[in-house]
Amino acid sequence: MAAASTPARSSAHLSQPVRVVLRVRPFLSSEAASATAPCVSLLGCHPGGGVTVQLKDQHTSRSEQYKLDAFFRQEDSVSQIFDQEVRAVIPSIFEGINATVFAYGATGSGKTYTMQGTEDFPGLIPLAASTILALCTGTWCSVEISYYEVYMERCYDLLEPKAKEIMALDDKDGNMQLKGLSWVPVRSMEEFQELYSIGVQRRKVAHTGLNDVSSRSHAVLSLRVSSTDVVKGKLNLIDLAGSEDNKRTLNEGIRLQESSKINQSLFALSNVISALNKNEHRIPYRQSKLTRLLRDSLGGGCRTVMIACLNPAEYQESANTVSLAARSCHIENFTSSSKQETPKLKIDMEAKLRAWLESKGKTKSIQRMDGLFSPIASKTPLSVSHMKQPTSSRIPCRVKAMDQDGGKIKKILFDPVVHVPTENIPREHRQTEVNTPKKVVLPSVTPCNEKHEASLRKALSPISSNMVPVEQQIPDNGNCPVLLEPQTPIEKRNIVEETPGATPLERFNALGSNLKEALVQQYLDLLNVANKEELQQLKGIGARRAEYILELREDSPKPFKTLEDLGNIGLSSKQIRDILKKTATGIFK
Ligand SMILES: Nc1ncnc2c1ncn2[C@@H]1O[C@H](COP(=O)(O)OP(=O)(O)O)[C@@H](O)[C@H]1O
Ligand SMILES: [Mg+2]
After folding, report:
1. d(C-alpha 336, C-alpha 67), whole Å
2. Least enclosed by CB within 10 Å: which of 134, 147, 239, 333?
3. 371 appears as a binding residue in the annotation
4. pLDDT digits over 48-71, tens only?
């Protein structure tokens, strides 16, 4: 059965900055015994583009719905994903338009399988390399590759390992470049496979000797096309590090640090994609090394495909992945729960806050989140984080990563068939006319049947009044909101002037409120202008936070407009309250 999606790379598809698609892998033999149905399924596809998927927890019958661009089922092959999502971006590279495809998801969800593939089923990387090389045949175009990984915010060359990390420096256009990264020419699939296999092997044992480093680093393979020595464009194919829920995996020590960095950079990536899809003026590239490195290939006319990979046996993990993917998607999103009307606001903000705190390694704060959310939690007993799950679903059913043997992939894809019609290459790059290539037949798109449409109509019917579309809940800057106590209502603020008949007590209270507001404003102003030394003298702002504040200011001159913006520097609502209380108390000392 064909995958459900919008028509493959329609013109709308190409004009969209980032496509966000889902892929659920088949059950592994080790999971088959306990598996019933996958935790995610397609509900329907929209005539105007996009699909609605449902996530369902077998144990609690909790369910949520999300809208995304396309859905690839367990039986859909990687070559279908390639045909529908990746093939069409390749000709643009020859026109100088960069593109990025990345696989996102938890460890064991099928990212490496999707990007790298196996001997018998090549992944997107060899499929793309083969297509690009085929397009170069008979033209003046040449291809070079680079392959590096980002581990703990440091970069390592996988093609020519150097003793140290490779330095990342900003060029004059503000794009980050890796100094000394090797770019190796490849002329055939044999050459490509040779190099790529070596890089894959190195990734497994790179620099720490830990076994499972491969799933804890982002691996970026880039294919760069040049014509008569002038670089045209490049395609980045990225196997992202597995996202992790520290609360569930009980990570400690180095594992916790690694996963904090991973979650932080994945969250930063999601912020960038979300900002691009919302056409925002400010794209927060500076939030992580990876987004800084990809700046020239994300946004600004570049094509991007995010493939969110799901393990069919892991509901909670999949829900986290889809929630992050959906907030990156351009489609206005919503969820609905079949069990109760838990506002999406809470689920999404909680997920965001959790991701942010985790990225800062604030496990204590995470544990305290239950307290932060308690007013809502008590009313919504089935909300994601407060729901008691049966033991079986709480124990992480980790699937050992595939750990592809680099040598095995060599055999794949030497198929001389030209996968993309040469007429897609701009004429100036063609050396001579080649034989008419085989025409590409793209898999047909699943028609939306009546049942799907009916359930879709149901899904799209007005959501109960306490459910607000997710998009409205996310601050413009895409950063994690801090949950503060409700702010002093505006009406109260100027009660002294506005209510001449106010009682003395009301006037006194209003004064207190005005003082509080003035204090907050002064504090925010100070964060917006103070230098590093001054910042460090403030309570709660250490050296690292001060540096981060200066970085935020580079992106936006006044990053702190409200107290909630302090969430961007990892302060919890309690910390903010404490800081202000201490500052206020200090006045009377
Ligand atoms: N489409 C698929 N068909 C068959 N097996 C798959 C598929 N996708 C993933 N797998 C298997 O699932 C396991 C986990 O996949 P892997 O790609 O290693 O996950 P990740 O890279 O996300 O940690 C591996 O054993 C892999 O072979
Ligand atoms: Mg992997």
Report:
1. 11
2. 134
3. no
4. 788 999 999 988 888 899 999 999
Q: Are 286 and 555 in contact (CB under 8 A)?
A: yes
The tens digit of pLDDT for each residue in 17-32 reads 789 999 999 999 888 8
pLDDT for the residue numbered 228:
85
Reduced to 3 DSSP states, what percent helix, strand and coil does the chain have, rounded to the nearest 5? 45, 15, 40
Going from the Cα of 355 to the center of ligand 2, the distance in angstroms, rounded, reads: 20
Ligand nearest to the CA of 74: 1
SS3 33: coil
Calculate the dihedral angle through the C-alpha atoms of 284, 152, 354, 541, rounding to the nearest 10 degrees.
-70
For residue 241, which of 62, 432, 105 has the smallest C-alpha distance? 105
Is 109's C-beta closer than 6 angstroms to any atom of ligand 1? yes
567 is in an annotated binding site: no
Residue to probe by mutation, ligand 1, list 23, 24, 25, most atoms within 8 Å of CB = 25
Residue 446 located in a structural domain: no
pLDDT of residue 369: 35
Domain shared by 79 and 178, yes or no:
yes
Residue type, 382: L
Backbone φ and ψ of 357, nearest 5°: -65, -40
148 CA distance to ligand 2 middle (Å): 15
Q: Distance from the CA of 589 to the center of ligand 1, in angstroms?
A: 62
Last residue of a domain, one of 363, 394, 429: 429
Distance CA 492, CA 490 (A): 5
> Any binding-site annotation on 109?
yes
Map residue 164 onto helix, strand or coil. coil
Among all ligands shown, which has an atom nearest to the Cα of 399? 1
Last residue of a domain, one of 384, 404, 429: 429
Domain count, the chain: 2
